[in-house]
Amino acid sequence: MMKFADLIEEHTEELTALDTIDAGKLFYFGKVLDIPSGSATIRYYAGTADKIHGNTIKMNSEMQAYTLKEPIGVVGHIIPWNYDYPTQMFDWKVGPALAAGCTMVVKPAQQTPLSALYYAHLAKLAGIPDGVINGFGHTAGVVLCSHMDVDMACFTGSTETGRHVMQAAAMSNLKPVSLELGGKSPVIIFDDVDVDKAVDLALVAAFVNKEVDDFVQEGIYDDFIRKLQEQVKSWVVGDLFDPEVAQGPQIDKNQYEKVLSYIELGKKEGATLLMGGEPCEGKGFYIKPTIFTDDDMTIAKEEIFGPVMSILKLKTVDEAIKRANATKYGLAAGIMTDNLNIANTVSRSLNASIGWINCYFAFDYDLPFGGFKMSGFGKDAGLEALDKYLQVKSVATPIYNSPWL
């Protein structure tokens, strides 16, 4: 695994280019963040591989016992195309599964298979035995979930597909599943913060991650809107290899049309369109950065995964908590405030699996990430991810005439 991590670092340029071409990732971010994070993740879990221990147990009778943590077996990994994927999901899922001693079949999204194939090539060069990391095409997802010889299914994707994964697992060998599903994460901006910093964070959260709602307190709402519009006017859409570009195309025609249909739905339902709302001129699946206001619209409730931002006005802390929790999802939340009491109160009150205070996308291989509610269950990253690929076996033996009972 250490050699595997070394090879990932040595081939950063190739892996970044593949994700840029295949997944529409900005080349700069891939080279600086995604691929280095991937090699660091593999290296982190390599360090855990020889630290998997059970416990010794003193039983109430004349018995002693211990527990073993054993690999769960064959794991089916089904990974998506969006956000930092497929690089981040490949490393987050393969790293701990390898360290736990599992074998696996990796099914990348059919839109983005290239970097996963290259990772498998590097794994082979690193000496990981044949048959430990396997892959297959677009028909593999259903098979991995329903096959009697697959011992666990790990899926990242939509809530709707997550239901099918659970159903197939239940109807086959009752394999455990780990699901990281959809999200519509609130970014709550209170009026005690620097507006320029708030705008920068909101832009990254909305137009890079593409699954957030911005709740802005009324004291800075108008100023926030004005400065946000000024920033978006300079937001460059275009060639992903150009370091000046901030946004690339949608992954394919289907997603392009889906995003445009949500924009039209927002207009139809009466949301106020501040800017954007249409395709870019020229070829390709490019959409102008789009900003809506108004609440209780479909676009403010459902996951779009496109450059569409909803900005909603709020008054009080209690209102912020109530409205941010009024969603079927519970993936993540952002909180911007200089008030420590507000930060603590809101972060503890939100029903989301991770709360980022005065930051966003604070990911790390040691920080567990996974959903609440209809955003799924099970963790990627951290030691919690390692544990999900292990099962606990208890072993008990009698003690005869021991002075220590």
Automatic annotation (TrEMBL):
Domain of life of the native organism: Eukaryota
PANTHER family: ALDEHYDE DEHYDROGENASE-RELATED (PTHR11699)
Domain Aldehyde dehydrogenase intervals: 1-395
Keywords: NAD, Oxidoreductase
Residues in coiled coil: none
Any one GO MF annotation of this record: oxidoreductase activity, acting on the aldehyde or oxo group of donors, NAD or NADP as acceptor
Residue numbers annotated as active site: 180
InterPro entries hit by this protein: Ald_DH/histidinol_DH, Ald_DH_C, Ald_DH_CS_GLU, Ald_DH_N, Aldehyde_DH_dom
Pfam family, one: Aldedh
Family affiliation: Belongs to the aldehyde dehydrogenase family.
Protein name: Dehydrogenase
